[in-house]
């Protein structure tokens, strides 16, 4: 059985990324709950955490998919919902509206990404960060945070959220740092240091560079901690389910670690 801890719903408008023509790179994006459920059936995915799709530099688009994610969770018990929120002062009204959905049936996470602006260490973002994590603690939710090397999404920045909040709230570091420097910083020490310090930190390996899943699995076995902190995630439509599954299955093998990664840790967090 496969439980997917990070995938998206909603179709984004075409956008002229990087100065090119308007394009839709997320070719497997799904506009309806029915289409999402059909994908789960085709994959054999038994559980999924579904988050609003995002990527175009307009936060209003991501916020607009919150109700769709909640609808998915309330229509099919295999699905749990995550809500898009933002710590940017410009997004305060929309974030407060999103947080009103935090107690809805099926909601199990809040999603942050600094790709659309803001920065963990920006003092202007701290009041809403405090509010977001307080609501997560109130409702027993996980906070998902996008990671990728450099700028505001680098683990040097996002790691502050673990330091400040993960003693009380589970923090899911999406993409395990998202690239070479992030992988080395996390697997080399920081991920395990946080676990040893009692932080409720989790991760997935979607987007991970080839060496990272196997190295992380080896470090988990060598250190004897972290077995229950790694989840499988497809990141559909930005990831590829078959490819993400194959890489992580090869790294974790068919034993106890694989059972935790593909099923049991998701169940502990979301069921």
From TrEMBL:
Domain Amidohydrolase-related: 53-252
Cited Gene3D superfamilies: Metal-dependent hydrolases (3.20.20.140)
Superkingdom of this protein's organism: Bacteria
Protein name: Amidohydrolase family protein
